[in-house]
Amino acid sequence: MNKYIFAGCCLAASAALVAGCGDSGKSKPGASPSATASATGSAKAELPKFDRSKHLSVFAKLPEQFESKDNPITPEKVELGRMLYFEKRLSKNHDLSCNSCHDLAKYGVDNQPTSEGHKKQHGDRNSPTVYNAAGHLSQFWDGRAETVEAQASGPMMNPVEMAMAGPESIIETLTSMPEYVEAFKKAFPDAEDPVTLDNAAAAIGAFERKLVTPGRFDKFIAGDDKALTDDEKTGLAVFVEVGCTTCHNGSAVGGKLYQKLGLVEPWPSQKDLGRFNETKKDEDKMFFKVPSLRNIAKTGPYFHDGSVADLGKAVDMMAKHQLGKTLTAEEKKHLLAFLNALTGDLPKDYIAEPKLPESTDKTPKPDAS
Ligand code: HEC
Ligand code: HEC
Hints:
By secondary structure, the protein is mainly α. It has helices at residues 3-20, 33-38, 52-55, 75-85, 98-101, 148-152, 154-157, 167-175, 178-187, 197-208, 216-221, 230-242, 275-279, 311-323, 329-340; strands spanning 258-260, 287-289. The chain contains 15 helices and two strands. Strands 1-2 form a two-stranded antiparallel ribbon.
């Protein structure tokens, strides 16, 4: 049964692999599965049939939390980290917290192409989601921070983000409120001087390590066949057969490697050269971290510059520029159904905004300059 489709799929998969491995010149749109299959007739025949043993092997369930040997997760650290995550007094004008750009109730993003920071300034890049981010190989679109802990102190002192003058003003703010000093002591009981920028970053990091959004896809991976609809399963098969999984795989459906944006066909915008900006190596030009596609239906607009609002358009561009393919309407419809099924459940209790300490006379005042 369906032998022809099966053979077509294997061909497609190997063609995709070639494209994904960087052999860009050789990937011809004519070799796509749709072109081969449509020769036999009906639109239905173009679609691969989902096969558990074949199409699930590159994925994994999300873990309950992303552990770190260097920063063990404790309830005390998490509690402090949650407070700091929502703390607007860690911004120069007391108007921005991590949650302003990475709204936990909105799947960890602000749904803006680029975010508004201090004095309504905008950076050049889109705010990625903080959910499941601790599991990525690195942080930022270009991977320039290794861990969520290494990332966490940056935004407070970034002039276009929270714009704090330096570590001293952060420490001054935190030590001005006795409840924070107490919370740092509890979270870092062995530290002589617990209120430090590194410890603030470690607490935020511990909090972020539990920002995980398992959903129907995890149930499906675990063996519950009814957790995805037939259309979503077909979409999953398309996702694999077309070659998306050469880059987007693992438990976060991405976040595991860097790849060239415009691998097969040059990307329309070459303004931001990605990892090259960090490493200054020619071979890193246009390389970006492959983003996670968990909750992708909720985290638009898309790409490092937030230039594309429509997920369908983002998918077409990926097929064209990363794989040298044009998706049929049916392939795209099913792919989108699958991508929508990657929306997980928000940990509502965990992300509830905590009560923050009252300011004292020692707390620095907001500064709009
Ligand atoms: C003004 C908006 C803004 C604020 C405030 C902000 N961020 Fe971000 N965040 C961004 C942008 C933009 C990026 C991507 C920058 C880049 O890749 O160069 C980012 C990237 C990240 C990432 C990397 C995620 C990934 O998938 O690579 C994490 C984690 C993160 N921010 C956490 C935080 C934390 C924690 C705070 C508070 C201490 C914070 N952010 C405050 C805008 C913001
Ligand atoms: C060769 C590697 C590669 C392949 C193959 C690939 N992608 Fe991507 N994908 C990337 C990279 C790298 C980015 C980050 C783009 C950027 O930095 O703007 C990305 C971004 C995306 C985004 C936007 C994510 C966001 O948060 O803004 C979507 C959606 C996406 N890919 C879906 C797909 C789909 C669907 C396929 C298959 C048709 C696919 N990708 C194939 C590497 C790949």
